[in-house]
# Entry
Amino acid sequence: MKIQLSDHFTYKKLFRYTLPSIMMIIFTSIYSVVDGFFVSNFVGKTAFAAVNFIIPFLMILGSVGFMLGAGGSALIGKFLGQSNPQKANSVFSLLVYTTVVVGIVLAVVGIIIIRPVAVLLGAEGNMVDDCVIYGRIILAALPFYMLQMEFQSFFSTAEKPQLGLFVTLGAGLTNMILDALFVAIFKWGIVGAALATVLCQVVGGILPLFYFARNNSSLLKLGKTSIDFRALWQTTSNGFSEFLSNVSASIIGMLYNMQLMKYAGENGIATYGVLMYVSMIFFAIFLGYSVGSAPIVSYNYGAGNTDEMKNVFKKSMTIIASFSVIMFLSCLLLGKPMAEIFVGYDEELVKMTIKAFTIFSFSFLFCGISFFGSSFFTALNNGLVSAAISFMRTLVFQIVCIMILPLIFGINGIWFSIVASDMLATIAALIFIFALKKRYKY
# Structure
């Protein structure tokens, strides 16, 4: 039975509606993990470190697509809740076309400046060349990657989260198969890994274009539009928190790499790479649920249905808390097998990675609330509060922790800083949630 945004959501229905979004972002994360697995095991430690070194820069550029998707979905969902589908479709089309144009411009700029960026971040010797080769190939498909990130939000708003999952599965399988073919069999090294990622992003970005451009059974259709600066401003200002979150995470990733080069060299960066690959999958559960539930909040906010907003908020907090405990325990158990899968060829690296996992796992007890809180306020079209939560979690708390704690605990302080910053961000998110409860009546 089809689930509509106007429905009353039980736990079962809420989970069914958000599950495709959760799985969609998990699979998007998994094919990044597959890249890391093949590069680490078939190309080597230096290439693996180079990929992890330059990915934060690539993510900054690509996160523009996530900003337009998250901010646009909130605005489009509000119009749908106000029974204005014509305006919703016009804004949807405008945002897709804008993403293509912006993606091309950013790709050209990124290709030009990637070498000085890699050097500025601290890459040395062969690592610089690997960063540039991998980065330039990835940037060639940046518009498709931005569209892929954008459509992750739009599919849920269009009441087609299952279709979004199928597209992501297709893109993910493309990446996995081509990684095995290009890297393990053809021995194309870091070039093969980059090409596999590029082709999967083309699949993930172009298939939704074909679907929404034709007559379809969703709430959205790609068609004629007009320049609407007000809608663009509302989208970017509201989705800025998601952009800030992604950009901040990338900046923090660069800062972590710089600190790790100082305290542990390439081994530290490789260990951090393993942690980030695994955390991508776990964070994807929080992010996927937030993306999947956001259109429900936006729709009911636009419709003025406060009872359903209360219902969805209460159930969401319970679900997030349950996910947090499950992921904490899972991370504790997975530390050793994950270390052996990625860096089993180096005993010293395995030991360092297992120890890092043990500390890092505690962050999952806290990070879910801050993820959901930021997305929840984006769905309510309050980009300022959403951005404040993201800003404090990343650029404030993490920077302070990553700069201070290593001075006290050495390399372990780097892993402790992740936990400490997530705990502080959770406190900040809860303050905003309770302070604004009467205003939004959730």
About this structure: The chain has a mean pLDDT of 88. The chain has 15 helices and no strands. Residues 11-440 form one domain.
